[in-house]
Amino acid sequence: MEVESVNTTSRVDVLEVESANTTSRVDVLEVQTVNIAAKVDEMEILSTDMQVLNEETVNTTSRVDVLEEALAEIMLELAQLKEKPGGGGSDECERGYFGANCTACNCTSGGICDDGRKGSGRCACFDGITGERCDKCAVTGRIWPDCTECMSGYYPFQSYSPTKLLDPNGSADDRLGYGGPSLSA
């Protein structure tokens, strides 16, 4: 009987160990279930985000289509205007021309002309550019046309401005010098 008692005790010990292992496995499965549930929630959020992005892509594509149609119409109008120098007999001047006679604007690439039949021909300069023709850098020490800084030791504290070195009556586009005193008479 004593052997049976030892065997029974031994079986009880084995069952207790197996029960502990089963409890441990159940705990692991519960943690895994929680992790899986969290991943499912995350996937649902990602799915919703993907649906929103897909809808935004469709909307963007339709906006691009509308913009392309508008651009085509503008290009057609521009082509029709270009057929007539200075705007010809149309109601508007070609871009870069202004006034009743469609006179050429005097702006450089540093600005935009107030063009059109009702335009004044005045130049509106881009940021960092100044001058009646938008042909000077607003910051002293910068060099026209891209308004980059002078290298150290070259033309300090001086903005690039055209100087007529040869002909005092030369055009404003004669950029033979970098400012300073004029050498012309």
Automatic annotation (TrEMBL):
InterPro entries: EGF (IPR000742), LE_dom (IPR002049). Disulfide bonds join C125-C134. Residues 98-135 form the EGF-like domain. Keywords: Disulfide bond, EGF-like domain. This is EGF-like domain-containing protein. The keyword rRNA-binding does not apply.
